[in-house]
Amino acid sequence: RKKFKCPYCSFSAMHQCILKRHMRSHTGERPYPCEICGKKFTRREHMKRHTLVRVLLLRASGGNS
Question: DSSP secondary-structure letter at 6?
């Protein structure tokens, strides 16, 4: 049974961390910034994927910043 309920919608989760992640869709919180360009993300794994792509693109283009 899912015991953590969103106060904004009908979403519920088994774990508080999942609810906290979901809540960012309502609050707009983006706590994970890219160190290269500053773009912010709601999920750490999305920031890491973005950053990896940026680094690979910079290397491919011969850039060093």
Answer: -
